[in-house]
Amino acid sequence: MSTKQLVLPIQADETKALDNYFAGPNLHTLQHLKAQLAVLLQPGQKPEQFTYLWGAAATGKSHLLIACCAYAHTQQLTAKYIDLSHAQSLDDVRKALGPSVLLCLDELDVLTDNLDQQKAVLSLFEAVRNQGGLCFIAGRNAPAKLSIELPDLLSRIKSVASYELHELDDAQKQLALQQAAQRKGFKLSDETAKWLLVHKSRDLAYLFDLLERIDAESLAKKRLVTIALIKSIDP
After folding, report:
1. CA–CA gap between residue 225 and residue 218 (Å, rounded)
2. Across the chain, which distance is largest between two alpha carbons, in Å?
3. 94 within 8 A of 120, measured Cβ to Cβ
């Protein structure tokens, strides 16, 4: 797999931004990431170089990493996002890293039982540290529960700032859906939002994708967004 395939083209995913991340119980984490990015923009200032985000699926880890890279790009900073579950040769990434100011590594858990990849990630960490850059990492497990055999890598992750991301409750998910719908230009009533949470998958990634389809169908058929319309799209 080529380096270009490992690094997400941030411009292609405009749905993930810091401004549209519904923080809810994760506000402190969002504020920390923003603060570290702000330090990067101040000459002579040094941020906390490494931050580890962890939590269950659908808590917004990937959203935050991609959004941070996107924000860095708007500030004319170099940033790279790498999904480790799709990365086969991190040595190629390290060699092509160059003066990367922000490196975001997602799906750290896939490094279990892969010592070569663990060594490659540690080399990436060293490159970021030596360049004075910033590195955000995400995984599902708490640092103490990571299955990483390489002692130097495990101790590095355990020593950095660590933030657990919590899943939104139903009321927060409803508000997140309604705000997302508002940004798209349509109204999602309380009744319809609650119906979605009861009758569809509660995974926010799925629900946000469904909102995209609802928006497109509503515009194409010039119909208001109702439960009936949603049933016609996703029975």
Report:
1. 6
2. 59
3. yes
Asked if 81 and 104 count as a contact pair (C-beta separation under 8 A), the reply is: yes
Lowest mean pLDDT segment, chosen from 18-32, 112-126, 139-153, 154-168: 112-126
In whole angstroms, give the CA distance from residue 103 to residue 92.
15
CATH dotted code for 3-164: 3.40.50.300
Query: Is it true that domain 170-233 has CATH number 1.10.1040.10?
Result: no
User: Distance (Å, rounded) from C-alpha 152 to C-alpha 136?
Assistant: 18
How do the domains of the chain map onto residue ranges? 3-164, 170-233
Q: Do 141 and 175 form a contact (C-beta atoms < 8 A)?
A: no
d(CA 45, CA 193): 44
Compute the chain's Rg from CA coordinates. 19
Which among 33, 28, 96 has a CA at the least distance from the CA of 63?
A: 33
Cα–Cα separations (whole angstroms), residue 131 to 5, 14, 79, 122, 178: 24, 28, 13, 14, 42
Q: Which amino acid is at 181?
A: A
Q: What is the pTM of this model?
A: 0.86
